[in-house]
Amino acid sequence: MATDLPIHANGTAAPRADEDAGDNQQAVKEGLARMLKGGVIMDVVNAEQARIAEEAGAAAVMALERVPADIRADGGVARMSDPKMIQEIMAAVTIPVMAKARIGHFVECQILEALGVDYIDESEVLTPADPTHHVEKAPFRVPFVCGCRNLGEALRRIAEGAAMIRTKGEAGTGDVVEAVRHMRTVNAEIARAAGMNIEELRMYARELGAPFELLKRTAELKRLPVVNFAAGGVATPADAALMMQLGCDGVFVGSGIFKSGDAAKRARAIVQAVTHYKDAKVLAEVSRDLGEAMVGINTGAMAEGDRLAKRGV
Amino acid sequence: MPRTRITIGVLALQGAFTEHIELLHAAAATIPDHDFSFPEVRTPAELARCDALILPGGESTTMSLVAQRSGLLEPLRDFVKAARKPTWGTCAGLILLSESANRTKAGGQDLIGGLDVRVSRNHFGRQVDSFEAGLHLDFIADPQRPFRSVFIRAPVVERLLPHVEGVQAEEASKEDTVVAPSVPVREEGRKALSDHVEVLARLPREARALGKSATAGELGEAGDIIAVRQGNVFGTSFHPELTGDARIHAWWLKGVVEAVEQRDRAS
């Protein structure tokens, strides 16, 4: 069952001695993620799709040149999108616009920040630029969202300054199984941590490769200390509601919308499903007559080398 | 005899609604002798049970589209404008409670209305322009202690409008401006209706520039309007639900209790 994210006035940053001083950027960054809760963030490749997403009720859009399904089909190196296209999308809608940078490519992040995007997704969907390091995200004024497969990955990203987390799932497949696996893994590891005493937690932090203080806080909260969305394989209203019932705070939909038969209708249906995720009658109603879902790739039959989720541990 | 049970809903279509519920619980501890409940509201039936309502921060376009598709837009207008039950909107909620809004998405957006003001959406710019500032609010407890307020892609009240019967026709004639439809007030709400919009707080420009706290009074009339009240409709452009400081919630909750008890006496 979903656990609500309690308020922490400073965000995950350390409390400050002088509460009257300056603005707390971590609280502001994590604050925007809180405003996106209960919402759907949709991948769009041009201004027209962005407008369809906005009219469907998307809480934000992710601007990128190719949706993950096409990145898979095309192969080659996937990079940050053309700033021209990102700016066209920013001009077309009033909701927040996110954009993706390659893992470890801090200059792409600097460029996206200069463009004024509202969130950066340091994403495994693009080809990693650094084999070992992620971007040090805290110094940026723009907030970051990062993917995870398990609690260790999530807490390492938060330690680097990510203000929001999402499951990696397996992008561009339309197969929700990996997103479910990642959410269940995070939940199980948090439940395990919540039952531990302080000595055990120190050992578990070492085992996970996660900072002890963040793990301790997570164990106390019984959930991740930042907003956590589902991503990677969500294709139907039922998929979206499934991820919400598993405890996600909201949902990213990538290829699932604009690779389907009637994108606008499916987008609206997924938005309704995320709000009314516990109401099976509403879910039945919005799932009716949506036309063709994206064809999809069964991740079980996928070659190891084709898996994007392995990138960036 | 005053009733003891008061139901205050938080609109839970999208956004930061759980944060409001957490702070309402904290605020309720300051008001003994009452039994409060703070349900999430997603349906007309859930709204019908409420004595008062909070519209949280989130994306106002999303909330307004989902409200419309969930059959909740007209019941919300009835709640706020016909019954005039106590309502508070923060950020996106303030936008929805305004009679007029500009800088909306292409094609505009549906408003609920209730406050005779025009809001400017995303007034300060994009997320990189979002900020936190300490405010001195003279209407809350311990007013000397600054209230940490978070402004996230925040709107401001750009203009106070004269109260009119019916829609804000002059506003409707302006380019890129949307207005809320008219909903006649019902008898039960007449006492709570006011034609006067009170400015409760401004954001001193210097406070924002320096990251320091200052009162609007020290800086004259300069500074953007960030909190308003008209009758029992209240709006803030910032997010008291993100600070962990329950003083604004406690002040509002006290007002709700008075309004509900007054209404009970009248009926």
Automatic annotation (TrEMBL), chain A:
<dbReference type="GO" id="GO:0042823">
    <property type="term" value="P:pyridoxal phosphate biosynthetic process"/>
</dbReference>
<comment type="function">
    <text>Catalyzes the formation of pyridoxal 5'-phosphate from ribose 5-phosphate (RBP), glyceraldehyde 3-phosphate (G3P) and ammonia. The ammonia is provided by PDX2. Can also use ribulose 5-phosphate and dihydroxyacetone phosphate as substrates, resulting from enzyme-catalyzed isomerization of RBP and G3P, respectively. Also plays an indirect role in resistance to singlet oxygen-generating photosensitizers.</text>
</comment>
<comment type="pathway">
    <text>Cofactor biosynthesis; pyridoxal 5'-phosphate biosynthesis.</text>
</comment>
<dbReference type="GO" id="GO:0008615">
    <property type="term" value="P:pyridoxine biosynthetic process"/>
</dbReference>
<feature type="region of interest" description="Disordered">
    <location>
        <begin position="1"/>
        <end position="25"/>
    </location>
</feature>
<feature type="binding site">
    <location>
        <position position="172"/>
    </location>
    <ligand>
        <name>D-ribose 5-phosphate</name>
    </ligand>
</feature>
<dbReference type="InterPro" id="IPR013785">
    <property type="entry name" value="Aldolase_TIM"/>
</dbReference>
<keyword id="KW-0704">Schiff base</keyword>
<keyword id="KW-0456">Lyase</keyword>
<dbReference type="InterPro" id="IPR011060">
    <property type="entry name" value="RibuloseP-bd_barrel"/>
</dbReference>
<dbReference type="Pfam" id="PF01680">
    <property type="entry name" value="SOR_SNZ"/>
</dbReference>
<feature type="binding site">
    <location>
        <position position="233"/>
    </location>
    <ligand>
        <name>D-ribose 5-phosphate</name>
    </ligand>
</feature>
<dbReference type="InterPro" id="IPR033755">
    <property type="entry name" value="PdxS/SNZ_N"/>
</dbReference>
<dbReference type="GO" id="GO:0036381">
    <property type="term" value="F:pyridoxal 5'-phosphate synthase (glutamine hydrolysing) activity"/>
</dbReference>
<feature type="binding site">
    <location>
        <position position="43"/>
    </location>
    <ligand>
        <name>D-ribose 5-phosphate</name>
    </ligand>
</feature>
<feature type="binding site">
    <location>
        <position position="184"/>
    </location>
    <ligand>
        <name>D-glyceraldehyde 3-phosphate</name>
    </ligand>
</feature>
<protein>
    <recommendedName>
        <fullName>pyridoxal 5'-phosphate synthase (glutamine hydrolyzing)</fullName>
        <ecNumber>4.3.3.6</ecNumber>
    </recommendedName>
</protein>
<keyword id="KW-0663">Pyridoxal phosphate</keyword>
<feature type="active site" description="Schiff-base intermediate with D-ribose 5-phosphate">
    <location>
        <position position="100"/>
    </location>
</feature>
<dbReference type="InterPro" id="IPR001852">
    <property type="entry name" value="PdxS/SNZ"/>
</dbReference>
<feature type="domain" description="PdxS/SNZ N-terminal">
    <location>
        <begin position="26"/>
        <end position="231"/>
    </location>
</feature>
<comment type="similarity">
    <text>Belongs to the PdxS/SNZ family.</text>
</comment>
From TrEMBL, chain B:
<feature type="binding site">
    <location>
        <begin position="58"/>
        <end position="60"/>
    </location>
    <ligand>
        <name>L-glutamine</name>
    </ligand>
</feature>
<comment type="similarity">
    <text>Belongs to the glutaminase PdxT/SNO family.</text>
</comment>
<dbReference type="GO" id="GO:0004359">
    <property type="term" value="F:glutaminase activity"/>
</dbReference>
<dbReference type="GO" id="GO:0042823">
    <property type="term" value="P:pyridoxal phosphate biosynthetic process"/>
</dbReference>
<dbReference type="InterPro" id="IPR002161">
    <property type="entry name" value="PdxT/SNO"/>
</dbReference>
<dbReference type="GO" id="GO:0005829">
    <property type="term" value="C:cytosol"/>
</dbReference>
<dbReference type="GO" id="GO:0016829">
    <property type="term" value="F:lyase activity"/>
</dbReference>
<dbReference type="InterPro" id="IPR021196">
    <property type="entry name" value="PdxT/SNO_CS"/>
</dbReference>
<feature type="active site" description="Charge relay system">
    <location>
        <position position="239"/>
    </location>
</feature>
<feature type="active site" description="Nucleophile">
    <location>
        <position position="91"/>
    </location>
</feature>
<dbReference type="InterPro" id="IPR029062">
    <property type="entry name" value="Class_I_gatase-like"/>
</dbReference>
<keyword id="KW-0315">Glutamine amidotransferase</keyword>
<dbReference type="Pfam" id="PF01174">
    <property type="entry name" value="SNO"/>
</dbReference>
<protein>
    <recommendedName>
        <fullName>glutaminase</fullName>
        <ecNumber>3.5.1.2</ecNumber>
    </recommendedName>
</protein>
<feature type="binding site">
    <location>
        <begin position="152"/>
        <end position="153"/>
    </location>
    <ligand>
        <name>L-glutamine</name>
    </ligand>
</feature>
<dbReference type="GO" id="GO:0008614">
    <property type="term" value="P:pyridoxine metabolic process"/>
</dbReference>
<keyword id="KW-0378">Hydrolase</keyword>
<keyword id="KW-0808">Transferase</keyword>
<keyword id="KW-0456">Lyase</keyword>
<feature type="binding site">
    <location>
        <position position="121"/>
    </location>
    <ligand>
        <name>L-glutamine</name>
    </ligand>
</feature>
<dbReference type="GO" id="GO:1903600">
    <property type="term" value="C:glutaminase complex"/>
</dbReference>
<feature type="active site" description="Charge relay system">
    <location>
        <position position="241"/>
    </location>
</feature>
